[in-house]
Specification:
Blueprint lengths: L2 H10 L15 H11 L4 E5 L4 E5 H17 L7 E5 L4 H12 L3 E4 L6 H11 L3 E5 L18 E5 L12 E3 H6 L15 E6 L9 E5 H11 L12 E4 L11 H8 L2 E4 L6 H10 L4 E4 L1 H13 L8 E4 L6 H10 L4 E6 L6 E4 L11 H8 L4 E2 L4 E6 L2 E2 L8 E6 L13 H4 E2 L2 E10 L5 E6 L4 E3 L2 E3 L1 H9 L4 E11 L3 E10 L7 H9 L10 E4 L13 H7 L15
Parallel strand pairs: 1-11, 3-4, 3-5, 4-8, 5-6, 6-7, 10-11, 10-12, 12-13, 13-14, 26-27
Antiparallel strand pairs: 1-2, 8-9, 14-15, 15-16, 17-18, 17-19, 19-21, 20-21, 21-22, 23-24, 25-26
Helix pairs in contact: 2-8, 3-4, 7-8, 9-10
The chain binds adenosine-5'-diphosphate.
Length: about 550
């Protein structure tokens, strides 16, 4: 045997018969243990109805361990599903850790779902225990008799009134008061399920996604990269994005791991609440969907307030360039655009300007930064059209396919899995282009693209252009059936307070940037665009309501 062979053997197989490095599992214990040792003095701050609740990581950790043992004493075993129905608050954060650390599965329930969907997902996941904020108890009322798997209800609040509740019910704080802290297994296998979340269904029932410990740890790491949000111990992080939606973008995991203070907005925060909280608590990173930032921008325009934000993190729907500009130019707050899905834990792409593009003019830079951005390290992507890979030339469109260690590879017990997964890839249902530099630009969701006379019209491009109008607050574009062209676009516009806007203003603006056949057949002024359970434009509602708008000849176009 020559020398090189020997070295190779030594390198690739050590004396325990393993490859060269330790196979320490990537599990939540690693995050929790590290955090408790490194950052016991860091803060978790929650806005409550009464004021503000504050405590340090040290106390958080001991309450987490008590919650796990309380759950165990109620009979929760590894792999059992424990659901949370809660706002972003410290008790919810405790559940985020206590449930997976004991090997059980954290099912974050979207509290804004309809009763039918709530019933469906709790029963489909077969949740055994439900932790619920006291003030959210009423949403259980219509379904409480139809949840056969739920054995215990734990009510989270200071002094909850338990007389009004159904089934076997416990007060969260009483359970913790009597509990002995649990010791965790550091070797919990990394492929153990950690949690699950159902997508907010636009059609049919919600689909369940199961997250593994490994996926969540790697995703948390990715959120800390300098190429993405660079969360660190220097930050105070405000997840406005609900903890019931795609793990609040993983911020509860990365913030605790990297030692950032966490600021939680509590029950139903308004834009004013958010501005106050960001100012009082000197938040440095705040994350939410575009509608959150439209609202915050309005408050800041009316009441300029000094903030210490180093980054607004915006995703979940396309961030219009005009919104980015308002934050950066008017408020001097850096604005980052990211893209992801429940199925991708969620972070998949993040928009930052490459240093090699720094010489571009301001407009070109903005155009690049308004794209969904570059693929996050650790993931793979491709564009597919008619089963062929589409070139990265910034023009060719295809469906974006993703894979990687924090991407789901199936829906939980769901016959719809084959529709969205193929050959190890997740088919996102998003139509995109990719530039030669790697910037992903989402053209539309497949189902939102407008098909007119055999050609595609991007509703997102039209919306972005309309929202660049200084008097527009928000806008949505949908395709509706048309007798001649198959579908034609209709625009819905909400004007800023008391501003007068007309259809002709909007069409003139669009005519500057788009061919004539892209222009909406009508512009309808609304007081508000309907929103989904997670604050995105609910185009389905508009499509249902305006389905016949262009096919009924008696219909007179509306004007502002
Ligand atoms: P739901 O499907 O329940 O709305 P998700 O958060 O999983 O919840 O939605 C993911 C979808 O949201 C993506 O497939 C994409 O269509 C859209 N999306 C997310 N982020 C962006 C973004 N930055 N720009 C445009 N669309 C986005």
């Amino acid at each position: 045997m020559d020398h090189t062979m020997k070295v190779r053997e030594l390198t690739y197989q050590n004396r325990k018969g393993r490859i060269a490095m330790m196979s320490t599992p990537l599990n939540l214990y690693g995050i929790f243990d590290y955090s408790q040792k490194m950052w016991p003095e860091k803060w978790i701050i929650t806005r409550t109805r009464e004021g503000t609740h504050r405590y340090q990581y040290r106390e958080f950790g001991s309450r987490v361990k008590k919650l796990s043992s309380a759950l165990k004493s109620l009979g929760v075993k590894p792999q059992d599903r424990v659901a949370t129905v809660a706002w972003n608050n410290f008790r919810h954060l405790e559940a985020y850790y206590a449930i997976p650390l004991m090997g059980a599965v954290l099912h974050t329930v979207n509290l804004r779902l309809s009763s039918d969907h709530l019933l469906y997902i709790i029963n489909h996941a077969q949740d055994q225990v439900l932790l619920i904020d006291e003030e959210l108890l009423p949403i259980l009322e219509p379904i409480q008799d139809k949840l056969p798997t739920v054995q215990h209800l734990i009510v989270m609040g200071e002094h909850p009134d338990l007389s009004k509740t159904p089934m076997a019910v416990w007060a969260y704080e009483d359970l913790l008061a009597d509990a002995v802290p649990m010791n965790y297994d550091p070797d919990l296998p990394e492929n153990t399920p950690l949690g699950m979340c159902y997508t907010s269904a636009t059609t049919g029932n919600p689909k369940g996604v199961v997250y593994s410990h490994r996926g969540i740890v790697l995703h948390a790491m990715a959120m800390g990269l300098a190429n993405t949000s660079a969360i660190s111990e220097q930050d105070r992080v405000l997840p406005v994005v609900p903890m019931f939606h795609a793990n609040a973008w993983g911020l509860p995991f990365s913030s605790i791991w990297f030692g950032a203070d966490i600021v939680l907005p509590g029950p139903a925060p308004t834009s004013e609440d958010l501005v106050r909280l960001m100012s009082q608590e000197q938040v440095s990173v705040a994350a939410g969907v575009p509608t959150v930032w439209f609202g915050v921008a309005k408050v800041l325009e009316e009441h300029p307030t000094p903030l210490s934000l180093r980054m607004v993190l915006c995703g979940g729907s396309a961030a219009p360039p005009a919104l980015i500009q308002t934050f950066e130019k008017t408020f001097h707050i850096p604005f980052a655009h990211a893209y992801g899905m429940t199925e991708t834990s969620p972070l998949a792409t993040f928009s930052r300007l490459k240093s090699t593009l720094a010489d571009l003019g301001e407009d070109d830079q903005l155009a690049i930064r308004s794209t969904q951005g570059l693929l996050v390290p650790g993931l793979f992507m491709r564009l597919t059209s008619n089963n062929r890979e589409v070139p990265w030339d910034a023009h060719s469109m295809g469906e974006l396919w993703l894979k990687g260690p924090w991407v789901a590879d199936e829906y939980y017990h769901d016959a719809r899995t084959p529709d969205s997964f193929e050959n190890g890839w997740l088919k996102t249902g998003d139509v995109a282009t990719i530039s030669p530099e790697g910037y992903v630009r989402l053209v539309d969701r497949t189902k939102d693209l407008v098909k007119s006379g055999g050609e595609w019209i991007s509703s997102v491009d039209l919306e972005n252009a309309i929202m660049a109008h200084p008097d527009v607050f928000e806008a949505a574009v949908i395709g509706v059936p048309h007798p001649k062209w198959d579908e034609r676009p209709l625009a819905f516009v909400v004007a800023k307070d008391n501003r007068k806007l007309h259809k002709a203003d909007i069409l003139a603006l669009l005519a500057e940037n788009f061919p004539k056949w892209w222009l909406p057949d009508d512009v309808i002024f609304l007081r508000e665009i309907p929103k989904s359970s997670v604050g995105k434009f609910l185009k389905r509602a508009l499509r249902e309501q305006y389905h016949h708008y262009l096919s009924e000849s008696s219909q007179e176009p509306a004007d502002g």
